[in-house]
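Hey there, shall we discuss this one?
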Amino acid sequence: MLRSVEQRRVPGSQVDPRVMELRSAVSRLRRQLAAHPGEFRDRSIAEEELAALAGLAAGGDPDIPRLRRSLLLVAGAIGSVSALGQGVRELREAVDLFGPSPRA
């Protein structure tokens, strides 16, 4: 379940709920990608960036520009694989919990 950007911590917990949501989204998409039988050109890029996102989430206080960069790389690498579309959307929603995307 997605949480508001305003909600920072669960009472009695030291883990930011946004970070928990990010960890879950990354983990789900990594599992979906690993189970996907098809090969595509940028699969290794998606795997590397999901690993980077997992590392950022594990740190507990991720660098937001880095989160957004990794999200763009994952979306670009997986973009045309419709079977993974829901996982990419969930990842984007988890990243968006850290604040709105900067607009030019």
